[in-house]
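Hello forum,

I keep getting stuck at the same step: I have a sequence, I want structure tokens, and every attempt I make locally crashes halfway through. Rather than fight my setup again tonight, could one of you with a working pipeline run this one for me? It's a single chain of 53 residues.
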Amino acid sequence: MAVRHNRRTVLLTAADGLSTPTSVAIRGRTILVPSAACLTRSDPDLLGAPLHH
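Reply #2:
Ran it on my machine without issues. Output:
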């Protein structure tokens, strides 16, 4: 979720493969979100998306 000017925008959802995210990391202009699948116990992912300024 991104917050800008007091407005929230969802950036990643289950449709993108997100399942119980555990943390967020930013490397350069890339955001990385490990999706551990703790509840489903199947198909953990590492999602990456470019950051735009």
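Strands lie at 2-4, 7-9, 25-27, 30-35, 45-50. If your local run keeps crashing, start a new thread with the error log.
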